[in-house]
């Protein structure tokens, strides 16, 4: 498989030059820390492997991702499992399993400030772990994505994901960050013994594996049935960093109050979020802000208009108005928060910017990316602290090229100063 062979070779290049990239003599990036942008493997490495599988996570690690992302759901019998959607038909063989046919249902719930309705599907919340483990994961049906591995992998538990990341950390001798997203807490907390059951279940699991500490009491009495596996010794290897993610702002605030782990506030549907006073509010609980990437290109007003999301103009004006796309990164950094936009796709796929569909870009420069190189260099230049990426090989190569560009610029400046 030529693509995978190239991937492995390019990953080796990326890892071999990592010492150069982190060399303090290299010019500062525009990130909050001054270090290079960190690459988050979106659902692992979904460009080549079925997403959220053992192989997807391992490949993300081999390709040099800095963080590897899982999405969390909660089964009927209280097990945390990894899957992007709350429903299962899009990326598993659930429809072909006759024993599960009776579980097909309709659901409506609040997600990222909007009501979401999914009909005639199977939902994680309605199934036991035993039923979930009957499923096999398939790759998305895009012509450019390898389909060779369909049906080979089961749906993982959150604990299995954390075991995998510990294993790749030990076996590759390099720390990898974990960055779980808690999907639709309002859905998964329905019918539970208390309103933060889902969140606390995740906190206790993360703590066991060494990626968080509890900073405020949680109700552990409700989780006596949570039996976690013994830990594999790290053998001197350090665990990587961690972060929580959620589109639910109340959940983000809860995780921030109750754990030592930084919180990523995801958002693309709440207009107030993209105002100066909105960012002030977010900065009280989030250390990282993660908007849809088009907020840095076309801008908030154009995006919300395209999605038929309404807002109160008077309220937005009182909160300082929508922040222009070419000012958004500076405003976030000014409040001490890092930035982690999503999602930067494989180059075979559309970049999905509104300006590519005829909407006028919102920045003064009128920038609209024509290819992945332009896109990445633009976001690197803005100072993105993290980026959710697919095809980590391409992203790593572009990061190396941008580093070289910064170094050449610095060298040229040093040379000109020497001549004066």
UniProtKB/TrEMBL annotation:
It is an enzyme of class 3 (hydrolase). The keyword Magnesium does not apply. Gene3D superfamilies: Phosphatidylinositol (PI) phosphodiesterase (3.20.20.190). Its EC number is 3.1.4.46. Keywords: Glycerol metabolism, Hydrolase, Signal. Belongs to the glycerophosphoryl diester phosphodiesterase family. This is glycerophosphodiester phosphodiesterase. It comes from Coemansia aciculifera.
């Amino acid at each position: 498989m030529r693509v995978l062979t190239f991937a492995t070779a390019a990953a080796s290049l990326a890892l071999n030059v990592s010492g150069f990239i982190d060399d303090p003599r290299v010019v500062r990036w525009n990130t909050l820390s001054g270090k290079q942008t960190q690459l988050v493997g979106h659902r692992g490495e979904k460009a080549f492997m079925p997403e959220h599988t053992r192989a997807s996570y391992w490949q993300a690690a081999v390709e040099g991702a800095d963080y590897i992302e899982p999405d969390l759901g909660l089964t009927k019998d209280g097990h945390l499992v990894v899957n992007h959607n709350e429903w299962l038909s899009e990326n598993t063989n659930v429809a072909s399993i006759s024993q599960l046919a009776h579980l097909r249902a309709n659901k409506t719930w609040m997600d990222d400030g909007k009501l979401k309705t999914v009909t005639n599907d199977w939902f994680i919340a309605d199934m036991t772990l035993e039923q979930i483990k009957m499923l096999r994961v398939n790759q998305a049906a895009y012509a450019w994505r390898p389909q060779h591995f369909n049906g080979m992998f089961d749906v993982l538990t959150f604990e299995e994901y954390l075991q995998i990341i510990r294993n790749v950390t030990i076996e590759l001798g390099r720390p990898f960050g974990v960055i779980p997203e808690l999907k639709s807490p309002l859905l998964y907390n329905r019918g539970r013994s208390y309103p933060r059951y889902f969140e606390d279940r995740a906190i206790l699991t993360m703590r066991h594996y060494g990626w968080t500490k509890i900073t405020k009491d949680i109700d552990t009495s409700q989780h006596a049935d949570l039996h976690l596996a013994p830990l594999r010794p790290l053998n001197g290897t350090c665990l990587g960093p961690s972060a929580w993610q959620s589109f639910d702002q109340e959940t983000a605030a809860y995780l921030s109050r109750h754990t030592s782990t930084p919180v990523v506030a995801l958002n693309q549907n709440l207009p107030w979020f993209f105002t100066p006073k909105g960012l002030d509010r977010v900065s009280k609980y989030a250390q990282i802000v993660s908007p849809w990437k088009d907020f840095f290109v076309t801008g908030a007003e154009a995006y919300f208009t395209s999605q038929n999301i309404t807002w109160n103009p008077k309220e937005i004006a009182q909160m300082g108005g929508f922040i222009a796309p070419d000012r958004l990164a500076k405003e976030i950094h000014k409040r001490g928060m890092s930035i982690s936009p999503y999602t930067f796709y494989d180059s075979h796929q559309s970049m999905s910017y509104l300006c590519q569909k005829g909407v006028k870009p919102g920045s003064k420069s009128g920038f609209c990316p024509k290819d992945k190189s332009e896109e990445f260099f633009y976001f690197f230049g803005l100072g993105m602290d993290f980026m959710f990426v697919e095809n980590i090989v391409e992203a790593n190569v572009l990061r190396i090229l941008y580093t070289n560009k910064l170094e050449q610029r610095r060298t040229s400046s040093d040379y000109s100063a020497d001549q004066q």
